[in-house]
């Protein structure tokens, strides 16, 4: 009885269960072992952060910057993760003109109970850049 009450209480909160990970190191220019200027990943991250201010899911699908997702030869790289859902890793995303497509695809992901994103439904920049589709953990 107590466990049921706790589960209901948890479901009643607005705690985000989704995350959009964005690699901020992708497309970095290096010179003598040091970063030069703003990386492509940082530019994409800024665009996503700005665009998400008006996104209806901004409080439910937070954007989290990460240093690297080990897909460095496929910059720029983002990932969608959600409780009980497939996790997607997307690469080869253009620095410019992909932010709105990423948020559109994230909205599709949010709406699906299992997170499945069929090729034909995904926005153009995210149709061919899937690097991984990882099964969800058992619930
Ligand atoms: S630098 Fe972006 S995935 Fe490694």
Automatic annotation (TrEMBL):
Coiled-coil region(s): none
InterPro entries for the chain: DUF1636 (IPR012863), Thioredoxin-like_sf (IPR036249)
Pfam entry (one): DUF1636
Protein name: Metal-binding protein
């Amino acid at each position: 009885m107590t466990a049921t009450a706790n589960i209901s209480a948890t479901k009643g909160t607005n705690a985000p269960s989704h995350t959009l990970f964005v690699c901020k190191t992708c497309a970095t220019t290096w010179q003598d072992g040091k970063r030069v200027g703003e990386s492509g990943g940082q530019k994409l991250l800024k665009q996503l952060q700005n665009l998400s201010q008006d996104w209806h899911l901004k409080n439910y699908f937070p954007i989290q910057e990460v240093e690297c997702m080990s897909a460095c030869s496929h910059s720029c790289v983002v990932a969608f993760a959600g409780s009980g859902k497939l996790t997607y890793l997307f690469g080869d995303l253009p620095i410019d003109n992909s932010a709105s497509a990423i948020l559109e695809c994230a909205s599709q992901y949010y709406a699906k109970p299992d997170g499945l994103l069929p090729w034909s439904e995904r926005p153009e920049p995210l149709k061919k850049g899937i690097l991984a589709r990882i099964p969800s953990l058992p619930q």
